[in-house]
Design goal:
With 186 residues, the chain is of the alpha+beta class. The chain contains 7 helices and 7 strands; from the N terminus they run βαααβββαααβββα. The strands form 2 sheets. Strands 2-3-1-7 form a 4-stranded mixed sheet. A 3-stranded antiparallel sheet has the order 4-6-5, with helices on one face.
């Protein structure tokens, strides 16, 4: 299996192929969320299932994604991390623990910055606080999800900050239409 980090812009309504890639029980569980958050979670899981299918040669619906309470989701020993934000999702998949995070660039949360960031990080934010905040925030989230203090890389992509921790891998971009097409033929 190769390490992969994929970003997908999303919009509502989600294509039918994306909806059908996620088991009905999971869709029903997510139905309680606001529509935007529900669609983000569905799209992230559909992206993961497409990546698992590519890498392991099985149908997207054949994977059982376990969600142990208080622990990171897992699937048959494969390491992965998912994240979503308004308008995009990302998934990292690999052979070692990984953490991924994506956030839409928007005004900085200065109260959170002052509470969480070091003096050096706050100085880093001085030139462009809105972008720098989300760069730093996604780095922290990715490292937390990975469970390590390893090297975290961050990219600014189309109005989003995305970070990956755990392995070296350049991000791939995929459109929602391409994801739906891939899922419909798998």
């Amino acid at each position: 299996m190769k390490n992969r980090f994929v970003i997908c812009r999303i919009s509502s309504p989600l294509p039918e192929a994306v909806l059908t890639a996620v088991p009905p029980g999971r869709i029903a569980l997510l139905a309680r969320r606001p529509a935007e958050k529900r669609d983000q979670s569905i799209a992230a899981e559909a992206l993961l299932r497409a990546l698992l299918s590519d890498e392991l040669g099985r149908s997207p619906g054949s994977f059982v994604i376990e969600r142990p309470r208080g622990k990171k989701p897992c699937c048959a020993g494969v390491e992965f991390s998912l994240s979503h934000t308004d308008g995009a999702v990302c998934a990292a998949l690999g052979t070692s623990p990984c953490g991924a995070d994506i956030e839409k660039l928007r005004p900085a949360k200065m109260h959170a910055a002052r509470a969480c960031f070091s003096g050096g990080e706050l100085r880093y934010m001085s030139d462009d606080p809105d972008t720098a905040f989300w760069e730093l925030w996604t780095r922290r989230e990715a490292a937390f999800k990975c469970g390590c203090d390893g090297e975290t890389r961050t990219w600014l992509v189309g109005g989003f900050a995305v970070s990956l921790c755990g392995f070296e891998c350049e991000p791939e971009m995929v459109t929602l239409a391409a994801l739906a097409e891939k899922l419909s033929v798998l």
